[in-house]
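All the exercises in this workshop are built on plain-text protein records. Sequence and backbone structure share a record, each on its own labelled line. The question running through the whole workshop is how a given chain folds. The record below serves as our worked example for the rest of this section.
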Amino acid sequence: MNQKITIGGRPVGDGCPCYVVAEIGINHNGSVETAKQLIDAAVTAGCDAVKFQKRSVEVVYTQAELSQARTSPFGEINGDLKRGLEFGRSDYQEIDAYCREKDIVWCASCWDEGSLDFIESFSPPFYKIASASLTDSVLLRRHAETGRPVILSTGMSSLEEIDRAVETLGTDRLVLLHCTSTYPSQLEELNLRVIPTLKERYRVPVGYSGHEVGLATTVAAVVAGACVIERHITLDRSMWGSDQAASVEPQGFSRLVRDIHAVETALGDGVKRVYESEIPIREKLRRVNS
């Protein structure tokens, strides 16, 4: 039996209701007001948490990368874009207060140690580690030192790399997410049967982080055993931004959460039984011969 952990006061693991995370990421396009609208959409959909991304731009990117030409709403070079998408302390204070008002928890993927220290000051209920950071052992150790639950995406990673990450983080407060790190992901590369593989290998709760177009395959991940679901949320898939096309709009997110919980109910407990509702039908229709 895979272990359960607690995130934001909710038990997460086999036998528990699926924990649904709406990843806002950078889909706010640098606007706190847009972020609030995305939080509202996540609340309306029935999500358990929203997630942002936090980077120290000068640490995560080289100067060569930052100086590359790239036209965006923020300027003409890549650095203008990267800095424009980052929220500062006052922005996160506003987001923190808004999430408390709306009664939804929030966290962030921290791409460097300075960003982790920054988010730690808000006492998040858990951390998400992006697939890109899975091999950053220094960052993983810093996450482990916080003592907070960690959700780790495993996109573009071999089992051997995941082995090392799990060894670094420990398994007491860990959830793994099966993931394919292309935006959007192709159906033939989703490989949802990896979910039970990860459950068997690591004996921790396992979920799914999806970047595909559509909802059916994410619901199928729950059938395959995912106990946490993460999808990007957007106000409009046609909005400017690199992640928007692989995201889910508000109405779609509401359908996704509804269908996840409907499937959970339908899966049942695996014990074959005769239901009370079947007895009148059985008595009316069945012939019994000895």
Q: What stands out?
A: The first strand starts at residue 5 and ends at 7.
